[in-house]
Amino acid sequence: MTLSRWQRPDFWGLAPFRRVANLRDEMDNFLAMALGHLGEFNGENGGTQLMEGWVPAVDVFEDKDSLHVKAELAGLKKEDIQISLQDGYLTLSGERKGREKNEDGGTYRTERWEGRFHRSISLPCRVDAEKIKATYNDGVLTVTLPKAEEAKPKQIPITVK
Amino acid sequence: MQKENGTARPEAAKLQTQDRPFVSPKVNIVETKEAYVLEAEMPGVAKEGLDINLEDNVLTIIGRRAPEPSVAWLYHESHQADYRRVFELDPSIDSGKLSAQVEQGILTLTLPKAERVKPRRIQVS
Question: pTM value?
Fold first, then answer.
């Protein structure tokens, strides 16, 4: 038995309202998800899957010196994750490979997503591309992007004459 | 083989140390000749955060994530929760031989079938 895939409901339900400022991200992700594989024939299940692809949950926070991006990417291999930075957008993409087809017995539950994902995040400030660091532990990718010097908060002293 | 047990168990609720709710991790369950293999997706859970409990034939999986830092979030989509899911094991599972491993947020539990239910070929003498 194969259960149909479903998307974390709170993400699609609430995220657009929580952060209207990043509407473009939401639109990008929506289009990538809905249209990215439109019409691709999935021979295994014998039908087309409109909703192929998945969207990992992403957290972004900042401190004085850096932006920190965390993505929930459980069960990938380090080599299967790509990170790129272009025009102020950080793009995470990759592929989760499923286990080999099980010839011996049945499948009882298939709730986990497999296949490709793609996520672009608009960065709120300029970052120093040379100093970006990424780690992948316990299924969470953490990207640390040091802010460019001009983007860091500065105190401007006032001189009194 | 496994029926999910939706009822909350008070002893499991007591194990919750932090003030946050549980969510159900997504699982895949497949059957092989020798065993059932359960994979639960729990990103952010290290080996130390796992608590796997078998009582009678009720298997409880708890995965705790590190506490959230209190920072200025720009996006926050991940669950503010720990993971918990309860399964009722079929008697055909040899519950003494469960094994578990965790790798990059995926907990893999191997639940071997009892010898008596494995397929056997019977030689005609």
Answer: 0.71
